[in-house]
Amino acid sequence: MEFHRQPHTFVRQVDLKVENLERSLNFYQNVIGFRVLEQSAGKAILTADGRTPLLSIEQPENVVPKQPRTTGLYHYALLLPKRSDLAAVLKHFIKHGYPLQGASDHLVSEALYLVDPDGNGIEIYTDRPASTWDWHNGEVVMATERLDAEDLLAEGNGQEWNGLPERTLMGHIHLHVAELQKTEEFYIQGLGFDIATRYGNQALFISTGGYHHHIGLNTWNGVGAPAPADNSVGLNWFSLVLPNEQARKEVVEQLHKMGALVQEKSGVFITEDPSGNRIQLLV
Length: 283
Fold this sequence. Notes:
Number of helices: 5
Oligomer: single chain
Structural class: alpha+beta
Number of domains: 1
Radius of gyration: 18 Å
CATH topology: 2,3-Dihydroxybiphenyl 1,2-Dioxygenase, domain 1
Helix content: 10-25%
CATH architecture: Roll
CATH class: Alpha Beta
Largest sheet: 9 strands, mixed
Strand order of the largest sheet: 11-6-7-8-5-12-15-14-13
Order of helices and strands: EHEEEEHEEEEEEHEHEEEEHEEE
CATH superfamily: 2,3-Dihydroxybiphenyl 1,2-Dioxygenase, domain 1
């Protein structure tokens, strides 16, 4: 978890739009294991440690269901502190019969995949030690292999699920984008990320500090995919934490030079990638 603190740039919080706040709260508390940090009539901020916002969910007026084949969220990923924590989560899902969309060994990590009641993608994962990651020609070696669930459950050693561990972090976010060339320029030259690995001409994983990825970007919904309607279920924004105020100033200048719009509202700097994914720039 050393990749999610200074001097690295990393994702801290994700804000989602949902159709029914009460339904989503039930899911996120009882299935995922979040705690409510703050709640109002149309919005809730969720936490694992009782202090740090990780996920916020809100119900817009005249909300419409998640629109297919658009840009936006592919999944957000919760990083657990230990492998035994992931084992406890898997045991919890099995016990309650909650359906998974996938369970994968990525060499650098082990992950479970599911969706919330609105179809928003979720990954829950643990990293293998960074010392075991294989880098080849400057790119990290990753794969999608079958997760050894039996071995994972054995690692749990009977540990019971009791909600998300306090040291849970927002490990990364994976986005649908409309194309990769301008997107790469925005995130690499504008925001200062490095390329961690490529998957042909359809996906790009980027990071800072040698992480396997803080952000994933793909065109799997089609090159030229449109942005969803503003009142559609899905991603509202996500936040990036930059190392310090000087780093944020430099990023804002780089984005301006590229022609990207950066707005400041009440001390919060907000920009959009070329596919319309909104980003808050924090320090």
